[in-house]
């Protein structure tokens, strides 16, 4: 009976891995194929042609689009963490009326679908003169990255012993130095987790990037991939699209593999109280 449970467990894990990894695996296979071979289903490598990658990276604005995505995602993460840490300090350590209501309001903002706020946000972007600029994307991405960051960091900061803060106050340390020198070193797991999740959201975002940016030189990678097309289904460069998708996805996989331990620590922090 125990053997059957073990076999069933590993079969379930294998099924989950297959369901999760197979789409990316098949995209990698397709990215190395050209011509009619793309339309022939195969599940093992049959060719290793880098023509699709050369086409994507050597023509058009795609390399620039990748840099735009990096810049927008990095700026979004930096601002989210800066505002998130300071807001978390106020919400977790400073007592004031309406603190819980404010925290719930911040979290509820992230529950609105993007399409619901698109028209109003577009008017704000146009009024501020940010249309067709990367700054418009950074500002709009904060709508869904900042609430989650504030919520997670506030929960994490509440679990830090108050005695540490009191000792810093007795030593005459200012509130800003308490945040940067005392809390931030203790909050690295949560900051890595929220920062990486915010980076993934900003990196993959499509609707705002499609609406607020119209120039090829200022578009982000997801929009650039969507605009790769041909005159018909048979002429659509599917190999180039798959190559571009692999290029865009690979950095996220590398980041997750590098920070996986801190991600787990950040997600599970505060989940068990001794």
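^ Assign residues to that structure.
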């Amino acid at each position: 009976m125990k053997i059957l449970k073990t076999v069933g467990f590993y079969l379930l894990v294998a099924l989950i891995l297959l369901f999760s990894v197979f789409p990316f695996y098949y995209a990698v296979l397709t990215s190395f194929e050209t011509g009619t071979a793309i339309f022939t289903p195969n599940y093992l490598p049959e060719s290793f042609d880098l023509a699709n990658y050369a086409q994507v990276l050597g023509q058009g604005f795609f390399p620039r689009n990748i840099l735009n995505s990096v810049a927008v995602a990095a700026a979004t993460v930096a601002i989210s963490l800066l505002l998130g840490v300071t807001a978390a300090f106020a919400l977790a350590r400073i007592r004031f009326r309406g603190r819980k209501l404010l925290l719930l309001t911040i979290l509820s903002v992230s529950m609105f679908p993007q399409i619901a706020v698109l028209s109003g946000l577009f008017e704000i972007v146009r009024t501020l003169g940010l249309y067709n600029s990367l700054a418009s994307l950074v500002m709009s991405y904060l709508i869904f990255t900042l609430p989650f960051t504030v919520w997670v960091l506030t929960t994490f900061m509440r679990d830090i012993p108050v005695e540490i803060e009191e000792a810093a106050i007795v030593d005459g340390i200012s509130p800003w130095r308490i945040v940067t020198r005392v809390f931030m070193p203790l909050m690295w797991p949560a900051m890595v987790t929220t920062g990486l999740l915010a980076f993934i959201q900003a990196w993959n975002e499509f609707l705002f990037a499609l609406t607020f940016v119209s120039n090829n030189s200022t578009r982000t990678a997801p929009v650039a991939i969507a605009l790769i097309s041909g005159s018909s289904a048979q002429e659509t460069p599917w190999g180039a699209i798959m190559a571009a998708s692999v290029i865009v996805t690979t950095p996220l996989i590398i980041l997750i593999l590098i920070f996986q331990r801190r991600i787990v620590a950040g997600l599970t922090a505060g989940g068990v109280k001794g």
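Residues 60-221+254-268 form a domain with the MetI-like fold fold (CATH 1.10.3720.10).
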